[in-house]
Structure formats: C-alpha cells, structure tokens
Amino acid sequence: MTAVVSWRCCDATSCRAAGGLALRQRLVAQHGAERVKSVGCLRLCGQGPLAAADYGDGRVELFGGVAAERQLDPADPFFALQRPVVLERCGLVDPCCLDDALAQGAYAALAACRQLSPAAVVEILERSGLRGRGGAGYPTGRKWQLVAAQPGSSKVVVCNADEGDPGAFMDRAVLEGDPHRVLEGMAIAAHAVGASEGFIYVRAEYPLAIERLRAAITAAQARGLLAGFAMQLRIGAGAYVCGEETALLRSIEGGRGTPRPRPPYPAISGLWGLPTLINNVETFAAVPAILRQGGDWYAAMGTAGSKGTKVFALSGAITNTGLIEVEMGTSLRTIVALMGGGVPANPDGSLGVVKAVQTGGPSGGCVPAALLDTPVDYESLQELGSIMGSGGMVVIDAAMAMPELARYFMRFCVAESCGKCLPCRAGTVQLEQLLDRFVEKRATPADLTQLEQLCGMVKATSLCGLGQSAPNPVLSTLRFFRAEYEAAIACGEGP
Q1: Are 289 and 334 in a shared domain?
Q2: Within-domain flag for 79
Q3: Dist CA 189 CA 430 (whole Å)
C-alpha cells in the first residue's frame, strides 16, 4: 500500500473541543511535525476530532477520534453531495500560513480585479446573481453598485461577522479555516465601490477566529496585498441585535449597539455618515471564486431566483452534525435524509423520525416533515413562513413539543432585545408569557387568539429585524402544528 504522505488535522473550534489538539500531538509524534498540517473545518463535526490522510497516489482517507480510530467514508453523501465554493479551501489550507494560502490561489482574484475597472467588477457580481448570505438576500451586485454611485472619495467596507443564531456556525468555520478568503473578498469590494477603509466586526465569543483574523490581516498587510485598503478588526460584546446593520455600525462608532430607523440606508449614510457597504462573511467569501470563474459560472448553479451555493450548519436530532455547502435549490429531504443521515434511532431502538426542520434561527420558522421535498431557496422557504437566514438548520424529532420550541426562541429574543422600541421590548415578553401557558397546558381559547394578534402587532410595528421576525417561530408552528396548541387549551380548560 502507498504510504501516507501527509496528514491534515482539523484545528477548528469544534474539533478542538472534541480533543483535536491531542489528536494533532499524537500524529506529530507518529509521523513528524513536517508531515502534519493544521487546517480548518473538515465538515463532519459530530465525528470529531477529524484528520485526513493524503496518499502519494491521490487517495484521501478520513478519520475521527482522538486516536484516529474511526475511519469515515469520503464517498458518503454527506461529503459527495457538497458543492464547495465558499469552502473550497477550508480543510485544505493552513489558516495561519499565508504562503500556503497563496499557493492555493489566495489573492489571485484580487490581483486580477485590479486590472479591471470598478464598474466591470460590479457587473460581474450583478451577472452572478449572488444575494447577501446574511439573511435578507438582497442582491449583492445591486448593493455594490449603489455604494459605488455615491459621491466622494471616503467610503467604507464592513464585514458583518456577528454570527449569533442558535445552531449557526458557518461564518465561524470560514473565519477560522480560511481567513484570507474573507480579506480578499473585502478588498475586491473596496476596489469595486471606491473604499479605502474596512472593518470586520466579530463577536468576542469567537476567540480563535479573532486570533486568526488578526494574524491574517497582519500578514497580508506586511506583503502589501491590501495596499490602499486599511483593514481593522472590531470586537463586539456578543449582543445579538448588533447583527442588525445599523446597530453594528453604531457599535463600531463606540456607541450602544441599537438600531436606527431606515432610510437613510448605510449605502447612503453609514459609518460616521459615510457611504458604507455591509455584507456578511459568507457573501465576501464567495466573491473571489466569482471573480476567478466568472459571473455566468456562478449563476449556472442554483435556481432562477437563488443563484450559487449556500453553506449550512446542520445540527439537532440528526446523525451527521456538521457543515455543508450545497447548490441553492437542493431539497430539505436531500440535506436531512441523505447528507444528514436522518434522525438517530431512539433509546428503545425504534426508528427516529423527522418532525420538522427549523431554518433561519430565531427569525425563521419550522418546515414540517410532510414538506421535506421543498427546495432550499429564498422564495420557497418564505412561502412556508420561514427564511433561510444565515444558514442554521436544526432538525427536530418527535420528542420536541412545538410550543416549547417556539418558547425557546422567544426567550432568546426577549434576552437579546435592545429595548429601544416598545413592541419588541414588551411584546416579546408578553408572547413568552403566553407561550408559558401553552407549554404548561393551562392555556385558554382567549390565549390563542391573543397569541396570534400579538404576533401580528410585534411583527408589524417593531423597529428592526429582531422584533419584526421574533414572532416567526410562533406563527410557523401555529400554521403547521396548531393541534399541539389546541391540545394545550383542552388540558387547560380541565373537566
């Protein structure tokens, strides 16, 4: 058999937490430090810590466990059905080595784009059909064009890395595994819109991502790769509301992270009143591949209204927990049943059953098992009362009561509300109190009526996206699992 030439050891947070550093030490002791490379996420986080063995004949074997005792199948649908674009170097490149990143194509797209006019770069993005991956799905090229059209020479590019949805770890994996990709995407954006300054806003709960971003910025600046574009890192205190763009900008400015009414939008008047381009980590990370391969190449993937690929964090009651990147339009059934391996067996040995899939975090909704053939794209999920969000996807089994799930997400929103507007500050508290009655089986018919009316009020009158979307988990579970709420009423009325 051909001998192993080298090992790639996952050094992402998830594998570190599972004993990844011990696995790396073991591999170094067995094979020598020169044959063991630290890399980013190898995807199948639930089987971590992970390591990949690269053979001289091109074969790759994947192992899990502190002693690499479990051999995994790279041909499993979890791996085979992925379409890596954003994650194309994640798991291959050493995130702490600029030379390794350059050898694998980092900053080549930036060098090429600097030979193009800003308008030509924007046109490529518009042709690609890329939409913002932070949740709203606004056309990226259109946003870039709007910022580029603003007068003046002082403009800013901001990367929103304030990932905070429960069950979401996509951006963290990209930042930890391929930080130069994000920097390159931001520098391309700066060339396209005429910006000379950039900020990455990342939450303090991501210490490994922060460490690698700092090192990547320092290394890229020392090589002159970011010439003309000053990049800074800003650390957030973890407030979920700072994922909202105006609250994020306020935090960077040194103020309290609370949203403000729009318009004006940040593209017109953003950071310190300057035209500001804001995209999230995954959006910027998609840009280098689009510049390298062309807008038409990217637009050929996905659906008519949702182009390209999307990274999802797959978790919950699922056999294969981890990170996946698939073409837009891939069905939930393909993701959950084939790639995710379905729901694990119950403790009594009976078959596990999918009850629903929750997408979009606290702002999203639940898609019932009967609709698992739904394609994952912006329009299809919205029709079902959910959203794609940033990419968290939580699988729910029969053991979970849906009013309890709705209360979990409402409690999150209560805790994370900034309190600036009354509908969110008080409305979410009242919704949580109503949901308590349903969970505790003491609700009345009047409670159900009030629950629905209050959801509509909070959704229609809150200032920012946090409050406007907070009722979504309640409304979607009412839509598809109403019987569970009605059963709580029956119990509450008594004999």
Answers
A1: no
A2: no
A3: 43
Q: Specify the amino acid at residue 480.
A: F
Give which of 343, 354, 345, 303 is closest to 326, Cα–Cα: 303
CATH code of residue 371:
3.10.20.600
Please give the distance of CA 490 from its chain centroid, rounded to a whole number.
Answer: 40
pLDDT-based confidence at residue 56 (cuts at 50, 70, 90): confident
Q: Are residues 345 and 241 in the same domain?
A: no
According to DSSP, the residues that pair with 276 across neighbouring strands are 156
Would you say residue 57 has pLDDT above 90?
no
- Smallest Cα–Cα separation from 141: which of 122, 158, 156? 122
What is the arithmetic mean of pLDDT over 341-367?
90
* Dist. CA 396–CA 168, nearest whole Å: 15
Q: 317 and 259, same structural domain?
A: no
φ/ψ (deg, to 5) at 14: -60, -45
pLDDT exceeding 90 applies to what percent of the chain?
A: 89
State the Cα–Cα distance between residues 143 and 212, nearest whole angstrom: 28
Mind giving me the DSSP string for 223-288?
TTTTTT-EEEEEEE---GGGGSHHHHHHHHTTS-------SSPTTTS-GGGS-EEEEEHHHHHHHH
| pTM for this entry | 0.95
